[in-house]
Structures are given as structure tokens and as C-alpha cells.
């Protein structure tokens, strides 16, 4: 009998080293009790010897390389790092991070020196069997995508990306009015000229305003569709991994949501998660929006649409480039704290005022001869009440707060027909 135990967390946005206190020790002991210990590593590593990109994934995510030792000391032995911050410090930031991960013998997936490297599964050998990890992001600037190597041109370093298309459906009569209004202006002149000159594909089955696609439909609304070429590439990776490993995990970073409902996944993410399971993945591990989304059980395998945060030190970054200060009309005399205060309006808006960003849960399960019988949820508190200096550090929740967090996750999961049993501050989901 083969039994492989797995624990998974959401985003580790670590910018400062963690104190080696009792909370750290308890987390370490829990994590290290598993064979496979996964986190999403949402930070770049360098000593500010590289150039920043002109825009970022929200914050120019960076930490000194020493923080990697905290991740390793906590016991994590597999990580993905394809996310919206992968290209915050240009290609040199990608390469310095990759070098630090490689030099520390970390098993990491989702980013590579070209698309083939970024797409390939990475493997961990445990005494009970081999586990594969494939890392993907859908939230990233276009120049952060890894590109394929050609016989005559190098591939570009970057992330393994699943693109998607938003399609806005309007009633036929409104569709015609939309075209009439747009064509009264020059708003679409670049698109039309680029199509005429062959720089953009002509529209088929819809109408574009810039890059925004409209289609006729009896029911108005918006849907998102995954890019078929990207999906086919990722499916090939999953099928390769399924032949080479006993367990396959897919990590997907996606901030995309259903309308304004941040705690609900976008349509394409739901479709993609099921495609991963159909292709051989044992679990889909989502993250990105910095809050939890629900859990769906599909063909007796878990889909975690978002595991929220594990570490979130977004407001403890050491330095930011000039573009960060420009966003808030600040100058060279200003500091990081000035910029953070401006962004949060002195901590009255944004992620810092949302307690759900600072509470989460680790998930754990065992794969026994390819089957999963039960999932355990162990809730976390990230110190929302402590202020900027200490906020974002994880610790196991007390029973009262833990059960409240689990009830929230249970409510999010009802949409998918998933029932979570809560007892003594721990959640369980039976799959039998």
C-alpha cells in the first residue's frame, strides 16, 4: 500500500524573516508531519541589484534572499511561484529568484528560462512514492509570460500562463446600438486599422472594442473562457506527470473572480480545475485573491479554489521603485511607509482593513493507492489586530476563531455541494 500525506497552504508573501517563537515551532511541527509540504511562494528574491519593471502586480514584491530559510525551516519542500508578481523586477528578477531557489535545492514549479521549462512538472520523491507539481498563473502582465524556444530565437524567461478571454454578452438590439455608438467615435480606430494592416486578427463571431469582446446573447452577462492553446499545453504536462508520478498536484494562481464577488472563482477557473482533474491531477490548489474561496469535490478529488494567505507581509516591503511613489504623487524624499499610508488612506481602505485577508486554513489529505478519503482543514490567524509591524505572520488559530473561520469556508463551499464537519477547531471533509 502506498500512502502519501500532503499539506498545502495558500500564498506565502514573505518580506521579512519570521520570529522563531512558539507559533513558528507549532506550525513547523504540524507541517513536517506530512510527506509533501506545499506553499505558493509569492515573492522575488534579490538584494536590489536588478531593475524594476514599470508596473507591478500591485506591490513590487521583493525580499532579501534570507527569507527563503524561513520557508525551508517551516518544512516546505515543494513550491510554485507563477503569479502576478513574477515579473515585478523584470527578467533579471526572475533569474535571481530562480538562482536562489536552485542554490537552496528547492523544488519549484511554474517559472522557467523558457516556456518548456516553465511548463514542466517538478518532482519530489518520498519514501512512499513520487509527487509531481505543475505551476500556473492566469494573473500576470503580458511580458511576464514565458515564451517558447525556436530554432533561431531564444525563449523568454517567465511564467507558465493560462490566458483567458472575457466575453460580454448583450441582447441583439443592444449589440447593434453598441456598434452604432462606438462607430460614432474614434475609440476603435486602432483596432480597425490593425486588422486592416494585418497586425491583429479580424473578429470572428463577435465585436471588439479595443480588446474587449462583445457577443450577442439572449441572456446578458459576462463569461470567461480559458485559452485553448494554453490549456492543451498544460493538459500535456499533467498527462506527462501522471505517467511519471504517483500523485499529481496542480497549482493555479488566479485573482480573476465572478463579477465583484472576490470570494467566487471566475468561470474559466472552474472549467480549468475540472479539466485538470479529468487529465489526471489528484488535486487542484488555487490561490491569488488573498482570501478563501470554496472547496469543490469532483470525481472524489479536491478542488481548492483559493487557500487564501499563509504569510502576508505586503506592507513590510523594504524598498519600492519610483513608479510606486508616482502612483501617489510622492517624491524622492518620501519613504515606503509614506507610500503605504497613501495607498491605504492611513489604513482605512484596501487589503489591510479586510480581516479575511488575515485568516486562513491549511489543508491536508492522504493519497492512498491513488484515492483520497478525507481532507482536514486547520485554521490560521495572521495577526490582523497587530498592526503593520507584526501583521501577516501565521499562527494556528484558537478554537473559537478557528471554528468561525471554518464556518466561513463551509458557507463558501455550499455552492459546490461540499459539506465541512467542524469539531474542536478542526474541519473535515469526507470523500468516501
Give me a quick take on this structure.
The protein has helices at 22-31, 67-73, 90-103, 115-119, 172-182, 189-196, 228-244, 267-278, 322-326, 336-344, 399-413, and strands at 3-13, 36-41, 78-80, 108-109, 111-112, 122-126, 129-137, 158-159, 164-170, 207-209, 212-216, 221-226, 247-253, 257-258, 261-265, 283-287, 295-298, 301-304, 309-312, 359-368, 371-381, 395-396, 421-423, 426-430. With 432 residues, the protein is α/β, with parallel strands linked by helices.
Q: If you had to describe this structure to a student in words, what would you say it looks like?
A:
This protein is of the alpha/beta class and 432 residues long. It has 2 domains: 3-151 and 235-314 and 351-430, Metallo-dependent phosphatases (Purple Acid Phosphatase, chain A, domain 2), CATH 3.60.21.10; 172-216, no CATH class. It is 26% helix and 28% strand. It has helices at residues 22-31, 67-73, 90-103, 115-119, 172-182, 189-196, 228-244, 267-278, 322-326, 336-344, 399-413, and strands at residues 3-13, 36-41, 78-80, 108-109, 111-112, 122-126, 129-137, 158-159, 164-170, 207-209, 212-216, 221-226, 247-253, 257-258, 261-265, 283-287, 295-298, 301-304, 309-312, 359-368, 371-381, 395-396, 421-423, 426-430. Strands 1, 2, 3, 4, 19, 20, 21, 22, 23 and 24 form a 10-stranded mixed beta sheet that branches. Strands 6-7-13-16-18-17 form a 6-stranded mixed beta sheet. Helix 2 (67-73) links the parallel strand 2 and strand 3. The longest helix has 17 residues, at 228-244. The protein is globular, with a radius of gyration of 22 Å. The model has no long low-confidence stretch (mean pLDDT 96). This is Poly-gamma-glutamate synthesis protein (Capsule biosynthesis protein). Residues 5-314 form the Capsule synthesis protein CapA domain. Belongs to the CapA family.
Amino acid at each position: 500500500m502506498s500512502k502519501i500525506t500532503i499539506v498545502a497552504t495558500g500564498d506565502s508573501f514573505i518580506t521579512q524573516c519570521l520570529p522563531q517563537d512558539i507559533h513558528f515551532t507549532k506550525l513547523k511541527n504540524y507541517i513536517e508531519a506530512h510527506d509533501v509540504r506545499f506553499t505558493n511562494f509569492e515573492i522575488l528574491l534579490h538584494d536590489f541589484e536588478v531593475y524594476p519593471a514599470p508596473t507591478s502586480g500591485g506591490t513590487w514584491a521583493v525580499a532579501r534572499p534570507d527569507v527563503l530559510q524561513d520557508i525551508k525551516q517551516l518544512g516546505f519542500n515543494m513550491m510554485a511561484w507563477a503569479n502576478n508578481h513574477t515579473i515585478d523586477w523584470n527578467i533579471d528578477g526572475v533569474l535571481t529568484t530562480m538562482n536562489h531557489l536552485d542554490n537552496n535545492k528547492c523544488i519549484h514549479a511554474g517559472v522557467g528560462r523558457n516556456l518548456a521549462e516553465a511548463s514542466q512538472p517538478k518532482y519530489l520523491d518520498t519514501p512512499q512514492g513520487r509527487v509531481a507539481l505543475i505551476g500556473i498563473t492566469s494573473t500576470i502582465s503580458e511580458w511576464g509570460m514565458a515564451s517558447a524556444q525556436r530554432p533561431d530565437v531564444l525563449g523568454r524567461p517567465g511564467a507558465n500562463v493560462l490566458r483567458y478571454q472575457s466575453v460580454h454578452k448583450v441582447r441583439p438590439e443592444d449589440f447593434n446600438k453598441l456598434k452604432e455608438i462606438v462607430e460614432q467615435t474614434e475609440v476603435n480606430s486602432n483596432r480597425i486599422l490593425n486588422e486592416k494592416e494585418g497586425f491583429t486578427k479580424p473578429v470572428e463571431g463577435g465585436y471588439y472594442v479595443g480588446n474587449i469582446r462583445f457577443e450577442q446573447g439572449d441572456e446578458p452577462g459576462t463569461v470567461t473562457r480559458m485559452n485553448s492553446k494554453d490549456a492543451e499545453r498544460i493538459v500535456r504536462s499533467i498527462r506527462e506527470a501522471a505517467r511519471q508520478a504517483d500523485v499529481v498536484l496542480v497549482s493555479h494562481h488566479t485573482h480573476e473572480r465572478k463579477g465583484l464577488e472576490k470570494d467566487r472563482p471566475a468561470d474559466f477557473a472552474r472549467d480549468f480545475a475540472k479539466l485538470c482533474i479529468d487529465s489526471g491531477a489528484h488535486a487542484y490548489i488555487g490561490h491569488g485573491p488573498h482570501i478563501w474561496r470554496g472547496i469543490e469535490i469532483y470525481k472524489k478529488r479536491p478542488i481548492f479554489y483559493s487557500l487564501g494567505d499563509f504569510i502576508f507581509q505586503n506592507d513590510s516591503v523594504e524598498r519600492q521603485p519610483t513608479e510606486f511613489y508616482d502612483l501617489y504623487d510622492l517624491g524622492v524624499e518620501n519613504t515606503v511607509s509614506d507610500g503605504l499610508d497613501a495607498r491605504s488612506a492611513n489604513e482605512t481602505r484596501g487589503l489591510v482593513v479586510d480581516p479575511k485577508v488575515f485568516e486562513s486554513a491549511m489543508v491536508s489529505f492522504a493519497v492512498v493507492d491513488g484515492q483520497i478519503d478525507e481532507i482536514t482543514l486547520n485554521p490560521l490567524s495572521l495577526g490582523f489586530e497587530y498592526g503593520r509591524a507584526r501583521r501577516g505572520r501565521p499562527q494556528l488559530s484558537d478554537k473559537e476563531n478557528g471554528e468561525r473561520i471554518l464556518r466561513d469556508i463551509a458557507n463558501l463551499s455550499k455552492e459546490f455541494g461540499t459539506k465541512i464537519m467542524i469539531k474542536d477547531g478542526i474541519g473535515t471533509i469526507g470523500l468516501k
